[in-house]
Amino acid sequence: MITRKLGAALAAGCTVVVKPAPETPLSALALAEIANRAGIPKGVINVITASKNMPEIAKEMCENPIIKKISFTGSTRIAKLLAGYAAGTLKKMTIEAGGNAPFIVFDDADIDQAVEGAIASKFRNSGQTCVCANRLLVQSSVYADFAAKLAARVSSFVVGDGFDEKTTHGPLIHAKAIDKVDAHVQDAISKGAKVLVGGERLKDVGPAFYAPTVLSEVDPSSQSFSEETFGPLATLTKFETEDEAVRIANQTEVGLAGYFYSRDIGRVWRVAEKLEVGMVGANIGAVSAAYAPFGGVKESGYGREGGHSIDEFMITKFVSFGGL
Q1: Mean pLDDT across the stretch 182-191?
Q2: Cβ atoms within 10 Å, residue 68
Q3: Quick check: 308 pLDDT over 90?
């Protein structure tokens, strides 16, 4: 994530101040050390680590006139605060905020491929990525087949120590993440959802582990429909028509990524255009690539990383010559 921002900034000739999340400072520090060993001059890449006084640090970075550009990845709530701070100096910003990705399986999809795509999209890093599928919408005629195959695959996961070769999935980042996943599970169950796999904390494995979970018959009024879970929870909801699926998919204030499976090329183009997201995966469970623009719409933010993101760190100046 930092390299995606750094690469464009350095290519544009900018010096950089990196403020990593307090939970994950070591990778940023290691990157700075690697840059130092590679010969990048001191002062070009700077890292600030902190777990206290976060509002004050953010305010300084956004309001200080020396800083000309802010690139932020995080929650929509924090993104709005930073945008407010930066407004005082009209700083240019790139914001990649929260997601709530729909994953739609139509009745003409290759179900086996759709299951593998759902695994890749939903359970990568135990569901802790901003582009993870958050709401799985499945057409009623293939719902039972998809649900059974997905549950079978998820039940084969091995949760545990990442240094154990048998382990397929590891822990969540902290206790709050575990609490949120469990709250979404319990909320969905209270509204009629059924547990196909998982649905519980794995206290015998460790305090930060939650069983990869598949819930069926999830009501759209559930918390997991309006909030990003950011954990190993796959919720399944039936739909009848294409229009209904698109309507449900777009019923969210954010729009980072969206996925769907269909073998009808006409439907592929229709749905891709109608989904209110910045990135679409059609018959694929991954949308991120270094050469492709990465970013969202609505309250998922603005600006793009990757692709031609060097433009985000530059300004356009027009010079008109005369009288030479």
Answers
A1: 98
A2: 12
A3: no
Is residue 132 among the annotated active site residues? no
Burial bucket for residue 1 (CB in 10 Å: 0-12, 13-18, 19+)? middle
Helix axes 242-249 and 265-274, enclosed angle (nearest 10): 30
Q: Which of 257, 3, 305 is nearest to 129 (CA)?
A: 257
CA–CA–CA angle 115, 169, 26 (5° rounding): 125
Q: Which of 14, 62, 96, 253 is catalytic?
A: 96
pLDDT on residue 290: 86
What is the phi-psi region of residue 65: left when phi exceeds 0, alpha when psi lies from -120 to 50, beta otherwise? Answer: alpha
> DSSP secondary-structure letter at 309?
G
Q: Is 294 helix (H, G, I), strand (E, B) or coil?
A: strand
Residue 203 has pLDDT above 90, yes or no: yes
pLDDT exceeds cutoff 90 at 175: yes
Which contacts of 118-125 are long-range, i.e. CB under 8 A and separated by 24 or more positions? 118/150, 118/234, 118/285, 119/150, 119/153, 119/154, 119/285, 120/285, 120/286, 121/259, 121/281, 121/285, 121/286, 122/232, 122/234, 123/154, 123/157, 123/169, 123/212, 123/232, 123/234, 124/286
Residue 1 pLDDT > 90: no
pTM, rounded to two decimals: 0.95
Give catalytic status of residue 312 as yes or no: no
The per-residue pLDDT for 120 is 97
Looking at 130, 242, 305, 312, which residue is catalytic? Answer: 130
CA–CA separation, 294 vs 315, rounded Å? Answer: 20
From the list 165, 149, 148, 167, the residue with the least C-alpha distance to 157 is 167
pLDDT at 78 over 90: yes
Task: Judge whether residue 284 has pLDDT over 90.
Answer: yes
